[in-house]
């Protein structure tokens, strides 16, 4: 027989495949994408069927990467890069279904699993049993876990190699260049050179584009790209990414998806700018989608995802239109300082509609940052809007009824610019906030305590967000103010609960409150004058002895 005419592959022939298939009944193909694995499988299947043999082709139904392709259905055709070379797909099924189907297949059948990495590792035992019963098993692109399990059995493996385009070395990387349908194979040095030049070109275009043409100045950094000397409007992006990652990892359902060998949690950033968060989440195992109305941002995000070989879906779209029209759901979502812009352009009601739709399209965790109307840039720019501030966002999220638990990361925490709100559809598995003296069975802390130190000192501005575990009717507040007297103001959700004038020495006060079980609220304590202590840089206000809530 003549060798396969495939320019991408070396030293490999149909004769060899058949020899091996008939001797060793599990045969595995590994190698970079587009090295001829699928075309080899198809040729083998065709040969077997032409010789009167029975063939069954399996593809996984457990990952969107396959199921979103319209041809991936029973009776659809699996193609490859060789025009006209394709084969009928028999089964698009889960690992469990595939295991059962294999048991029912007759000895002598050639069973083929392409893109096998989208099956769970448990499939390997079924391959082994099938082979023991006299079936021939062909596997394309197994996962590392599957290969590890295969080691305990006898199987044959063919690692497909292609040359780098420089012709000097074997390729170790595959990249998709802009506008190219087929990938390019590169060796290590060529890959590095190509990545560096693509990144320089990208940064040059960013420099020339609005909103700061000619300057090393843009909104967001790019995730894990060296941008020394650049001025970034949002230099708090890494801190905000940490908030999303940490919150998502505390959702039991997202955790389960992250730990699954095949499934992946999905993430969508509404108003994604140039894709820092979409990229950061993709790098942590999420299937990312980024939506932004700005063509440049989407272009830059797309270019970088191609350079990095990621599969991120960037969509240039009006955020309100996208989120109200899509039927897709996402495990984790975020929207950073986008909805107030929608309000300035399309009105207050449109912004609300946008947030509501976002919450409904979120399966587990939604992360929200809003620009406030108390900021100069948005003041008087949103028609018909009430004051949009901390309490507005909290109330909006609570009243949506979509969240079992809401947490707040106040502005300033790890350098974040604005308050970041996290809504959990299901109660998270743990709380990242603890250690305050008033964490008891009446309330639990749902934000960092800003202005509280472990030695019980409060700063002149102290703030913490709490959720009531019971119906609360009374607050007891005890403290110690050494030295000069000062005025102390206690606020609940921005409303003054009590003003204590000329507080000095030990003090103890009780106030009636009315907070229903499950309500998240903001407690703040402001003190009019700081105490300066030698050798201590802090602006001290008072020593907190007790904050105690009592039940109705
Ligand atoms: Zn090379």
Characterise this structure.
The chain has 552 residues and is of the alpha/beta class. The chain has three domains: 149 residues, P-loop containing nucleotide triphosphate hydrolases (Rossmann fold, 3-Layer(aba) Sandwich); 190 residues, 3-Layer(aba) Sandwich (Rossmann fold); 109 residues, Jelly Rolls (Sandwich), CATH 2.60.120.260. The strands form six sheets. A seven-stranded mixed sheet has the order 15-14-13-16-17-19-18, sandwiched between helices. Strands 20, 21, 22, 23, 24, 25 and 26 form a seven-stranded antiparallel sheet that branches. Strands 5-2-6-7-1-8 form a six-stranded parallel sheet, with helices on both faces. Helix 4 packs parallel to helix 5 and helix 7 packs antiparallel against helix 11. The radius of gyration is 30 Å and the shape is elongated. It starts with 13 loop residues before the first helix and ends with a strand. The N terminus is likely disordered. Bound molecules: zinc ion. The site of zinc ion has 8 residues, from helix 7.
Summary tags:
552 residues, alpha/beta, Rossmann fold, Jelly Rolls, 3 domains, seven-stranded mixed β-sheet, 15 helices, 30% strand, elongated, disordered N terminus, binds zinc ion
| Spatial sequence of strands, sheet with the most strands | 15-14-13-16-17-19-18
- Mean of residue pLDDT? 91
User: What ranges have pLDDT less than 50 throughout 5 or more consecutive residues?
Assistant: 1-23
Which structural class fits the helix and strand makeup? alpha/beta
Query: What portion of the residues fall into strands of 2 or more residues?
Result: 25-35%
Q: Report the top-level CATH class of the largest domain.
A: Alpha Beta
Shape, per Cα inertia axes: elongated
**Residues in helix, %:** 25-40%
Instruction: Name the CATH architecture of the largest domain.
Output: 3-Layer(aba) Sandwich
Distance between the termini: 88 Å
